[in-house]
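Researcher: Sequence recovery benchmark, item below. Answer with residues only.
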């Protein structure tokens, strides 16, 4: 869940004292990490962008005519000022069925009815996907009770994967090296590298197909099949027998070499 105004894709701030303040304006900007509008002419997101060009910080794509993208002021998101309250209200309503989020920031309680909005297609929107029940369970029973923010969740996830995934590469080479005849190491490590390339292809393809067919959570879960199957297969690997077979093959090849000499 998004927790602060700055985490939303579209951020609207009313700088007046209250809704009737004639000097007040809406300041509209966007999160620097917000996704772009679909860069396809005629796409529904582009139609949305064109309807609200006067209230959103957008600029026409220099390479695609009639297509708009977020506008930057040097290295910072540009800010648009407007007094069109009806357009702001209408924008928030339309964003409910999009993949964007929006928040209204104001000291006046009169704006409490506007936003925040998290679109149905937003990455943080959960509840309708095949595996969303897992995310809902974790949120309700762990993340919210312990006050763990989305940022901290990603840091925890990164530490877990970093501590496992990095070491697994070195351990795989070390284990494989013990079970490979030294005299044929180039040949076997060629196979090792080849299967690494195959894995680099199979993983993204599995994720892409299932993410398009279902959602990103199903795509990520599908990758676990590779880890589980690999773990099961490793249980049947006799490392000691592999080391002995490699040493025996080395003795055989070296024995032939000496006899030929």
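Model:
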């Amino acid at each position: 869940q998004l927790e602060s105004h700055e985490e939303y894709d579209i951020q609207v701030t009313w700088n007046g004292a209250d809704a009737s303040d004639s000097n007040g304006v809406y300041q509209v900007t966007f999160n620097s990490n917000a996704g772009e509008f679909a860069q396809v002419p005629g796409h529904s997101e582009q139609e949305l962008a064109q309807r609200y060009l006067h209230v959103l910080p957008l600029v026409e794509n220099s390479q695609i005519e009639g297509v708009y993208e977020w506008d930057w002021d040097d290295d910072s998101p540009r800010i648009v000022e407007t007094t069109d309250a009806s357009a702001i209200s209408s924008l928030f309503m339309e964003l409910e069925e999009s993949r964007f989020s929006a928040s209204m920031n104001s000291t006046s309680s009169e704006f409490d009815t506007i936003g925040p909005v998290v679109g149905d297609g937003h990455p943080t929107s959960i509840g309708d996907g095949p595996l969303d029940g897992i995310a809902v369970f974790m949120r309700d029973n762990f993340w919210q009770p312990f006050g763990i923010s989305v940022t901290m969740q990603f840091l925890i996830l990164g530490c877990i994967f970093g501590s496992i995934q990095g070491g697994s590469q070195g351990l795989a080479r070390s284990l494989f090296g013990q079970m490979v005849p030294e005299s044929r190491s180039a040949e076997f490590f060629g196979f090792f590298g080849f299967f690494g390339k195959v894995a680099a292809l199979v993983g993204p393809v599995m994720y892409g197909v299932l993410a398009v067919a279902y959602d990103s959570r199903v795509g990520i879960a599908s990758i676990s099949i590779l880890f589980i199957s690999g773990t099961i297969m490793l249980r049947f690997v006799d490392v000691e027998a592999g080391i002995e077979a490699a040493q025996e093959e080395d003795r055989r090849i070296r024995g032939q070499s000496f006899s030929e000499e």
